[in-house]
Amino acid sequence: ETRVTPLQEIQVDGTGFIFIPYAGRIRAAGNSPEALRRIITRKLEDQTPEPQVEVRRLAGNGSTVSLIGSIAAQGVYPIERPTRTLSAMISSAGGLTIEPEIAQITVIRGKHSSKIWFQDMFRNPQYDIALRGGDRILVEQDTRSYTALGATSGQSRVQFRTQTLSAIEALATVGGLRSATADPTGIFVMRDESAEVANLVLERDDITTPRRMVYVLNLTQTNGMFIARDFTIRDNDTVYVTEAPFTQWSKAISALTGTLGALGSVSTANNTLSTLSGN
């Protein structure tokens, strides 16, 4: 008499393994059903004479994806009906281990890759893509930063904590201006701009290489606070608050930027940058 011991459906775990009684943990990821059957048969031969093993794939299509980075349970996961989308797969792996506001998701498919913000998957459903076998999903923290110097309450290199950051928010993050010494008419934002941006901001057409630019914010102007609120800080920017009157810094700015002088106002420049980012 042939005795048959049917097993319940066995789920491949996050690391690509299954557990079979008396056979132990066996790697399923990367093996076909026939290859897996032979492996299980060999492991059961010490327990059962001439074991007969049948392996069938019952769920999904055998495709798997890899999740790495700031994920609660990194590993290899099968694509099944409940986990066919990017957000569902991340959820099945235990979710994020970092703040959603600073989480970036990179999906690598073959030779191509694409990066989105985690929260954009929920704001824009088209980013919650259907997964394919072999996809690799990397979850990582935003690495952008800026440097705050001068008459601020804290001088340091500061990591971005949100997708976008205004000049006002950048100053608030380091504790604001030192009330006793800071000059609110001389807040400088220094950055390297592309030739395209430099031409548009300076209303020129002869710049062909990246240029060092200094934008000057004057919080005492009627609309100065609003301009600072609307001015976007970028990765690797330097925000400098001077203790001296702005006029004393004209020579220093010229030295920093070469022949390109500082902009006396950022209102026009900010509109230009906003137009560029919208294109």
Automatic annotation (TrEMBL):
Principal cellular location given in the protein's record: membrane
Q: What's the protein's topology in the membrane?
A: Multi-pass membrane protein
Q: Which GO terms describe its biological process?
A: monoatomic ion transport
Keyword presence, Glycoprotein: no
GO cellular component terms, A-Z: cell outer membrane; pore complex
Q: Which residues form the SLBB domain?
A: 157-241
> InterPro entries this protein is in?
Poly_export (IPR049712), Poly_export_N (IPR003715), SLBB_dom (IPR054765)
State the UniProt keywords alphabetically: Cell outer membrane, Ion transport, Lipoprotein, Membrane, Palmitate, Polysaccharide transport, Porin, Signal, Sugar transport, Transmembrane, Transmembrane beta strand, Transport
Q: Which GO terms describe its molecular function?
A: polysaccharide transmembrane transporter activity; porin activity
The cross-references to Pfam families, in alphabetical order and at most eight, read: Poly_export, SLBB_2
Family that this chain belongs to: Belongs to the BexD/CtrA/VexA family.
- List the protein's name: Capsule polysaccharide export protein
High-level lineage: unclassified sequences, metagenomes, ecological metagenomes
